[in-house]
Amino acid sequence: MSVRPAGGGVTGELRAAGFAGEVREFDTSTRTAAHAAAALGCPLGAIANSLVFMADGAPVLIFASGAHRVDTALVAAKLGWAELCRASPDEVRAATGQPIGGVAPVGHPTKLAAFIDTALAGYETIWASAGTPNSVFATTFAELARLAGASEIVVTTEPEPPELAQSAPTTH
Hints:
This protein is α/β, with parallel strands linked by helices and 172 residues long. It has one domain: YbaK/aminoacyl-tRNA synthetase-associated domain (YbaK protein), CATH 3.90.960. Helices cover 26% and strands 26% of the residues. The protein has six helices and nine strands. The longest helix has 8 residues, at 9-16. The chain is globular.
C-alpha cells in the first residue's frame, strides 16, 4: 500500500488553523474506522470518526472514537435536542463540502457545531480524516478539539471493548 503526503484545500485549511503535521494520502480507502486503523496499524479506538448528524434539523459534527457507536438518544438528551439522527450523504456534502468517510474538522462552507468524544482523550495520537475517503492526519485530542472548535462530550455509556480500543484490527 502506497502512502504519500497530500496537498490541496483541506491541507491548506489545516495549515491556516495552525496544524503543522503531515496529511497522509493512501491508495486505498480509509473511509471507515476499521479501514483507517488497518492502514495505519493503530487501535480502532484511536480513529476519530467524523460523523455528521442532524440535530433538530441542523447539521452538527461529532468526532467519535472508532470503537464507539454514538448513542443518539444520550447525546440529544445531554444537549437538549428533541431529535438527533445521522445525516444523509447529501446532507453531509451540503454541510461540509466533503464526502462521507472524508469529513475533516476544517474546510466547511459554514461553521458547524462540533463535539468530540471524551474517549479519544485516552490516546496520545489520534487520527482524523483530511477531506477525502483516503486521507488522514495524526493529531492529539486537544488539537482536534481546537481545530474543530469542538466541545467535549460522552457519546455512549458503553465502555470501549478492550480488543477494539487497544489493538490494530485486521480487514479481509
